[in-house]
Amino acid sequence: MNFEAITIKDIATALGLSVSTVSKALSDSYEISEKTKKIVIEYAEEHNYRPNPIAKSLKQGNSKSIGIVVSTIDNQFFSQVINGIESIAYSKGYNVIITQTHESFELEALNVKHLTYRSVDGILISLSTETSDVEHLKSLHKKGLPIVFFDRISEEINTHKVIADNFNGAFEGTQHLLDSGYKRIAHITSSPDISITRERLKGYTKALEDRGIAFNEDYVKYCMHGGRDLDEIKSALNDLLTIENRPDAIFTASDRITTTTLLLLQQMKVKIPDEIALLGFTNTQLADALNPSLSTIYQPGFEIGKNAIEMLISIIESKRPVTEFETRVLPTQLYIRNSSSPAKRD
């Protein structure tokens, strides 16, 4: 399945110019007026032009490169996803180009643009916490660029998606805290704009509802940059620790938020779990080595990566347009450790 790319000849025909004029305009030649350059460049960008031989390779569908867009590669979850992607991509003869958004929508859009300029055959993407508008992806998808979402997805684009069972993971994690005797369970999470935040919040609230515990919005704190901004987590914790009937447990909803919350609580001399229990989503391999050992909800990052790349390659190599898509939901796993043990009560 080939991604539609236009040529210099296409631009020349559309604008009523010669191929030579268009070529010189795109090369910023002094022979061409600024007005003409502006017209040509704007049309080229709007219609996804890229210089040969890239356009040629795209039309032939043989660039054999895959673009990956993640928040940061130092996140254990995304590192595992990338390992899963590479385990399949290289065996199928594809190279991968990895980009990081650092939770910035602007950088995400720029990375996607640069990946298309580098002739990728398709893109695997997990949206940034700032992304609420996916027009930059819609336009490329409509032109035929294969795109597969993983982890943080958009429902606005009809394509393959691979996610963890965020609802059930959050439900089981919150249920475990309730079973351990905790009643006032706070939830520190990411931006409400991203899919994993909504899914995990639903699992958390459902577990409370099933036990007859009223949802308390004061116990829910949003970190708009997914934990990348340390001050956001500090602010969330300060709010929770100073409110009346402060929480006796905290459920955190992302890798960076979970590990940072543990560190900050220790710096604040809060005893875990005696004063506040802690459980969260994280794929850190150090959970057992931390003090206390950290109760976690583990996502199958490697398997998510494998599934995502297999689905993307199936679109790329399809002889016909792909019109039927699926969302694969992979199970999470709850690991119970010391940070959520029942606290000693007087």
Automatic annotation (TrEMBL):
Cited SUPFAM superfamilies: lambda repressor-like DNA-binding domains, Periplasmic binding protein-like I
Protein name: LacI family transcriptional regulator
Keyword Endoplasmic reticulum found: no
SMART domains the UniProt entry points to: HTH_LACI
Superkingdom per UniProt: Bacteria
Species assigned in the record: Mucilaginibacter frigoritolerans
Domain HTH lacI-type, chain residue ranges per copy: 6-60
A GO molecular-function descriptor: DNA-binding transcription factor activity
